[in-house]
Amino acid sequence: GILALASGCPTGGGALLGLAGFASGIGPTSARKEKPSVPFLPGYPGGEPRVMVKKGQTLTYGPGGATTKVNLNDPTLPKLDLSQLETLCDPSHRYNPSTRSLTHDEREEIRESARNTYAPNIPPLWLKHDRQVLRFAAYFKEPVHENPKENFRIRHCTIYFYLEDNTMMVTEPRIENSGIPQGTFVKRHRIPKPDGAFFMAMDLANAETITVYSRAFRIYDCDDFTREYYQHMHGVTLPPREEPPLDTFRATQMHEVDMLSQPKSREIIEGKEYNELSVGGNRKNVKLQQYLENDRRVLRFRAFWDDPTKYGARMYYTVHYYLADDTVEILERLARNSGRDPYPVFWRRSELRRNPHINPTPGMLEPESDPYKPEDMMVGSFINVYGRDIFLYDCDDSTREFYRGYMGMEQEKMEIKDPELIHVKLTHPPHTGIGDELDSLGNCMRLMQKPPRRDYGRMLREGEKSLRFEAKIVNSGSEDVNRRFVVVVFLADDAISVWEKKARNSGHAAGKFALKSRKKNTATGTWFSSKDFYLGAVVEISATPFALVGADIATIESMEERCEDYAVSNLGAILPKLAGMRAALEA
User: Fold this and answer.
1) Can you point out the beta strands (E) in 296-429?
2) CA dihedral 571, 577, 579, 580 (to 10 degrees)
3) Distance between CA atoms of residues 69 and 410, nearest Å
């Protein structure tokens, strides 16, 4: 019904008039001509009236914000209480003292409270889940026909479920040059299930495989928000991520990518660079950033090299390391009147390699360069230049500051002392074996040769005196076991001669074994003297070791008379050593 208020009462109260409604048959009725029946064939209009299936809009916006549109014909709406209107029509209700009138502040508080509580107690889905989307990762198998390499292909998709209106959308990520139309696979709308009902949020949580328009999608993962939503809102824990299968096409593609990512040989890299330069390309400046950051920054070291040759000396150098391009320059520091040519550049500024290489023919491939870096230039270390081990012993203050910031370490300073000068004397040439060695040495000592000086006093005092010993050869030869020799030591000039005794059926001729001459002791490198011969001694004469096993009576008496010269014949020195042995034997 329609309510109307009639005003104009002279007393100010007015009267409430109600109209019971209006007649349902307002206006003249017109009879419609009945259409003739037509066959139900294509091209003929149907006789049934059209049915409006359009869904009305429920979302509307008002002064309080977004709200739901009210249907006035809804029987569940509350009825208007007309008794309150009758009270309001009486002007005396303003002066009713039975109730307390509200103050201005209370009215403002009520107004603000009503303004801030426009949201309903049970908000609708579009308000409760505004801009909340569940995202699932899925895939489906697409058959591949007439291809001997593969039977199917795995196509990955993303399923979006919008909580505000329970709509879904399926998209496929775009892959460049794939040859497959990709993007939005299924547009956003309410997707029906095979049984006719629509997909809801719980349908995606309880099913691992869903069917969308006769195509099966396997859900194998979701994002963190989706897991938290099901855990907090529904108490459902989603299964962990499932690894999707790998088809033949994807496996081949990954293998090709791995092959491309593997390091290429130098031949391929240099050939590619040559082809780019041959068609007019430019060289790549791979050290541009390093040049811009370290231009005109140089590390300075002090170094030296000890020349190991015969007349070598210590050479001092100044080493410059350029940080802009990792090149090295080495300059000589020559002292005044050094006698060397004034060409101080020892190593021209260039890359100093650990593995220097010179191509015998231009155009040949060189091995991979291994240059010296700043971390290799440390005080106390060596660098190899032209086969010389140059020792770094100091650097300047700016270099120390660089290493503090670059490597966090402190470069030391080493005190270097000049080596002591050692005068190397020339040695005499070895004896050729012809003549006496003293005669040959006289040719090296003087231009005008003189005979060697002899000790004539000793020769007159000793005369023909000699020491005679019996000896045998000390070796592993069985044929030398029974051979006996006579070793004669002449006291006048310490000359030595060796004679072999005659033995029957020995197979060796008796006679002179070594000529009378001075012989050298190979063990000490000095001349043999009479003190080196005594019973039990082993001497090597003419490369043959002899053991002295006997001596004649004159030799023993002569050695005992000169016991101060022959320690083995000195009884005063031997008896104290035997005293301890005597006490041990008596005990």
Assistant:
1) 298-306, 314-322, 327-332, 345-350, 382-385, 388-395
2) -170
3) 79
Amino acid identity of residue 555, one-letter, is T
Distances (CA, A) of 209 to 216, 219, 535: 6, 6, 110
d(CA 382, CA 211): 74
CA atoms within 13 A on the CB side of 359: 7
Instruction: Specify the length of the chain in residues.
Output: 587
Helix (H) or strand (E) holding 256: helix 248-261
Report H helices in 143-247: 201-206, 224-229
- In 3-state terms, the chain is what percent helix, strand and coil (to 5)? 25, 25, 50
Pair 514, 542: CB distance under 8 Å: yes
State the Cα–Cα distance between residues 495 and 516, nearest whole angstrom.
6
Q: Classify residue 1 as exposed, middle or buried by CB count within 10 Å of its CB (0-12, 13-18, 19+).
A: exposed
Q: What is the pLDDT of residues 146-161, one digit of tens each?
A: 888 889 999 999 999 9
CA angle 240, 245, 247 (to 5 degrees): 160
Contact call for residues 551 and 541 (beta carbons, < 8 A): no
**What is the pTM assigned to this prediction?**
0.36
Tell me the per-residue pLDDT of 242-255, one tens digit each, with 9 for 90 and over: 999 998 888 888 88
Q: Is 453 helix (H, G, I), strand (E, B) or coil?
A: coil
Phi and psi of 209, rounded to 5°? -130, 125
Three-state SS for 311-332 is CCCEEEEEEEEECCCCEEEEEE
DSSP per residue, 24-60: TT-S---PPPPPPP--S-TTSPPSSPP---PPPP-EE
The arithmetic mean of pLDDT across residues 382-386, rounded, is 93
Residue from 369, 375, 373 nearest 353 by CA: 369
